Amino acid sequence: MDALPQIKPSMMARFKDSHFWHSFKRDRVAQFCFGIFSLALLLAIFAPLIAPFDPYDSAQIDIMNSELPPSWEAEGDAQFWLGTDAQGRDLWSTILYGTRVSLTIGICAVMLQAFLGIIIGLAAGYIGGRVDSLLMRIADVQLSFSTMMVAIIVLAVFQAAFGTELYQQLAMVMLILVIGIAEWPQYARTIRASVLAEKEKEYVDAARVMGFGTARIMFRHILPNTLSPILVISTVQIANAIIAEASLSFLGLGMPVSQPSLGSLISSGFEYIFSGAWWITVIPGLVLVALVLVMNLLGDWLRDVLNPKLYKG
């Protein structure tokens, strides 16, 4: 009697049986952080549907409603449950749109970092020699400059050269480019270290013997085996990019007040905090801290799960 053919488990079945999934089910902190981040992401994506007011629509903004406290305070208004800012915008709606802007900048900047860092790191690690030395010296020079210092100089020069009006129109693109280009060495150095270990393995030698080209070996064979550190770096780098955007907005070099991000909200309300309108700065600040905290905690969890030396069975 012929043996019954074995049914190959589906991708979902393999995922449910993986160490990654079992570790996630056991770790309450990871579950909580993932839930908070997913909630923030959904609220940001569907902000136009969820927000009771549109902070970009001047017809829905009444300056007479400026600096109203949250609804639980004596002078609060029930329709503005988190209060209003100095321009009369509903703070809850503005935070939803601001979180959307901050996450967009953070995620897009990290995608740019990863794109540049992966290509440069793969080339440096696999080709080696003078190419490796040149690319890593460029990375060392880049790392010697603070991201914030580079961003402040570039954005200030652009604003002075092309005017504030053009800068406000291109603020999001400029922030993504500056933060993304300034941080690529983090990826490049990590990928290079992984490639140096992977390129000496037998499957790479077999690919060379079969006549595969350099690009195919790097991107089809080596790159998939270096994705674990990329995932860990990306979670931390998204948090760092969000902080960088908030810091630049606080200094007046980020998003304009008319296009609120969490950083520009904190900046716009800072001058009113001592007059009693604490909610304009404190509430967006708490949202920013919570968002960055859960991203960092997820990064720590991913680092532990994807590190085989820490696997405890």
TrEMBL record:
All copies of domain ABC transmembrane type-1, residue ranges: 99-299
Membrane topology term: Multi-pass membrane protein
Transmembrane segments annotated in the record for this chain: 29-51, 101-129, 141-160, 166-184, 230-257, 277-299
BP GO terms, sorted: transmembrane transport
One CC-aspect GO term: plasma membrane
Classification via SUPFAM superfamilies: MetI-like
Subcellular location: Cell membrane
Swiss-Prot/TrEMBL keywords: Cell membrane, Membrane, Transmembrane, Transmembrane helix, Transport
Superkingdom as given in the UniProt entry: Bacteria
Subcellular location, principal: membrane
PANTHER family: ABC TRANSPORTER PERMEASE PROTEIN, OLIGOPEPTIDE TRANSPORT SYSTEM PERMEASE PROTEIN APPC
Protein family according to the UniProt entry: Belongs to the binding-protein-dependent transport system permease family.
Protein's recorded name: ABC transporter permease
Source organism: Leucothrix arctica
Organismal lineage: Bacteria, Pseudomonadati, Pseudomonadota, Gammaproteobacteria, Thiotrichales
